[in-house]
Amino acid sequence: MDYPKEIGGLRWRKTSSLKPINVGEANARKERGEEEELLSPAARLFHEPNFNVYIIAILGCKTRIDPDLVRAKLPHTLLKHPRFSSLQVSVEGGKEEKQMKWVPTAVNLDNHVIVPPEIDQSTFAGDADAGKKFVEDYISDLTKTKIDGSKQPLWDLHLLNVRTSEPDAEAVGVFRIHHSLGDGVSLTSLLLACTRQIADPDALPTIPTPRKKKEEGLLAGGGRNGGVLGRGFWRAVVAVWTAAVLMWNTAVDVAAFILTAIWVEDTKTPLKGPHGVEFLPRRFVWKTMSLDDFKLVKNAMNALPKLG
After folding, report:
1. What are the angstrom distances between the C-alpha of 175 and each of 61, 78, 113, 178, 307?
2. CA 66, CA 60: separation in Å to the nearest integer?
3. Domain named O-acyltransferase WSD1-like N-terminal: which ranges (predicted)?
4. Cβ(69)–Cβ(36) below 8 Å
5. Residue 60 and residue 172: Cα distance in Å, rounded?
6. Considering the entire predicted model, what is its pTM?
């Protein structure tokens, strides 16, 4: 993540176009006639100088992480996804515009799987809070730097074999991914696709899905022909009603959004920061909370309905 040095209101300034990146692999593929896919408008937006965003994912492990094992498994899982094995190259487009394309490249995992050598395990012996603070400081430092996209794909994995105060947490993996590679939903799906079941190492994890409700009553009919006609009639009624409700809810939401943007301010809560807080360096902290703690936060924010 990039943060301005000065803290204050939003500052508008003319930004220069992204500079082209010279990549030998890109030229070689171009000579071979291989196609290169353009970045989507959303992915392109995340490269703007004032909107350079990274995603930080934190995973706790019950056992210590073996870096060699991680490097051995990544080519068979994560690197099979073209976004994680491609550079984002700026090229000349039509009408003197510059475009960005995905260019496949060879990935050197030594540049992406990072194990800090300066960790002294004896420092955290008998003090779980010290390990937790170390991880928080490490992640905070990650938010102040960025990955050089001209040399490698925009992601890295940091393996911290540090015991924290969380139960059974012997190590922490910190995944830093540029937002142009995907959003939360796509990255979660990718994470599940890279995992396997304990009982069957070759099987993908299963996710419980709700069963389809049986349509009873509305789809019931007296006779054979009457049943078909009845089902068609009630389906048409349900479709018209659903469309009417959707249009009404959309109109209400649009009106509420416009009125909120013009007259209404955000509700002041203990979680709302002062003006300019969005430009401050981030610090990621976490805490194991019970349901009573969630109720306390909900009630402090005057959320409805009241709990407890």
Report:
1. 13, 12, 10, 10, 35
2. 14
3. 127-302
4. no
5. 5
6. 0.62
Q: Residue for token digits 């190590």?
A: 171
Give Cβ neighbours of residue 112 (< 8 Å, ≥ 6 apart). Answer: 74, 152, 153, 155, 156, 157
Task: Phi first, then psi: give them for residue 52, nearest 5 degrees.
Answer: -90, 105
In the DSSP assignment, the letter for residue 144 is T
Nearest to 176 by CA among 110, 109, 113, 103: 113
**Residues 190-208: tens digit of each pLDDT:** 888 888 888 888 888 877 6
- Whether 275 is catalytic: no
Closest to 47 measured CA to CA, from 90, 92, 97: 90
Each residue's pLDDT expressed in tens, for the chain with a length of 308 residues: 443 433 333 333 333 333 333 344 444 544 544 456 888 888 888 888 777 788 998 888 888 899 999 999 899 888 988 889 998 887 765 554 567 888 898 999 988 999 987 676 666 666 667 888 888 888 888 888 888 877 789 999 999 988 877 767 788 999 999 999 988 888 888 888 888 888 888 888 877 666 555 444 444 444 455 555 667 788 888 999 999 999 999 999 999 889 888 887 777 777 777 777 777 777 777 777 778 888 888 888 777 665 55
* Residue 308 buriedness (CB in 10 A; 0-12 / 13-18 / 19+): exposed
- The single residue of 47, 112, 178, 179 carrying the catalytic annotation is 179
- Contact (Cβ atoms closer than 8 angstroms) between residue 70 and residue 2: no
Q: Cα(256)–Cα(262) distance, rounded to whole angstroms?
A: 10
Q: Is the CB of residue 74 less than 8 Å from the CB of residue 109?
A: yes
Q: In what order do the strands lie in the sheet with 155-160?
A: 54-61, 171-178, 155-160, 113-114
